[in-house]
Automatic annotation (TrEMBL):
UniProt protein name: Ribosome hibernation promoting factor
TM regions (residue ranges): none
Listed NCBIfam families: yfiA (TIGR00741)
Annotated Gene3D superfamilies: Ribosome hibernation promotion factor-like (3.30.160.100), Sigma 54 modulation/S30EA ribosomal protein, C-terminal domain (3.30.505.50)
GO molecular function, one term: ribosomal small subunit binding
Gene Ontology CC: cytosolic small ribosomal subunit
Record carries keyword Iron-sulfur: no
Species: Maritimibacter fusiformis
Record keywords: Cytoplasm, Translation regulation
InterPro entries assigned to the protein according to its UniProt record, in alphabetical order: HPF/YfiA_ribosome-assoc, HPF_long/plastid, RHF-like, RHF/RaiA, Ribosom_S30AE_C, Ribosom_S30AE_C_sf
Subunit structure: Associates exclusively with 100S ribosomes, which are dimers of 70S ribosomes. Interacts with 100S ribosomes.
């Protein structure tokens, strides 16, 4: 597994990097097969250290966890504990979904845009109905089953996930509803 360990305006020493590789490697290898890479970012806000970890698996799944504490090692340990809990919770589901999948999840390229909100717009009256684009990024749209999409959304702690349905090949959306349930949008199908 490849590791990218960095700090936002703090220096990450060799001892911390080794600790992260050892601990995170044992957690991920214990509960998930074929990890590709891990991105660990440390930052400090006031007196607390924050650790954010994102692990990509060859199946296309992404697991994400964060931790915070007054000590940098404690922040990482809390983050690793959350990652372990998350992966343990989904281990059976991961095995069931990916047992038959020999190849990685197919990924399509796409564009993601950030539009200016009304508060950040310069004038009170817009000149046109076209929104002002303030950022453009590349994004990945994975080909998944609906169950895999829900699991991916929950592991990433995302409110919504856009994916390509494995069966219909159409673009679908799963999202977390206000009542706690998960909604699924499949364009073109009627109930």
């Amino acid at each position: 597994m490849k590791y990218q360990i960095s700090g936002k305006q703090i220096d990450i020493g060799e001892a911390l990097s080794t600790h992260v590789k050892d601990e995170l490697g044992s957690v991920v290898n214990k509960y998930a097969e074929r990890p590709i890479d891990a991105n660990v970012v440390f930052s400090k806000h006031a007196h607390e250290f924050y650790c954010e970890t994102i692990v990509h698996l060859s199946t296309g799944l992404t697991a994400q966890a964060t931790g915070k504490a007054t000590e940098i090692y404690a922040a990482f340990d809390q983050c690793a504990e959350k990652m372990e809990t998350q992966l343990r919770r989904y281990k059976r589901r991961l095995k069931d979904h990916y047992r038959e999948r020999a190849d990685p999840v197919e990924v399509l390229g796409g564009a993601s845009y950030i539009l200016a909100s009304e508060e950040t717009a310069e004038s009170a009256e817009p000149e046109s109905l076209q929104p002002m684009i303030i950022a453009e990024m590349e994004t990945r749209i994975q080909t998944l089953s609906v169950g895999e999409a829900v699991m991916q959304m929950e592991l990433a702690h995302a409110p919504v996930l856009v994916f390509r349905n494995e069966k219909t090949k159409g673009v679908n959306v799963v999202y977390r509803r206000d009542d706690g349930n998960v909604g699924w949008i499949e364009p073109g199908s009627t109930a």
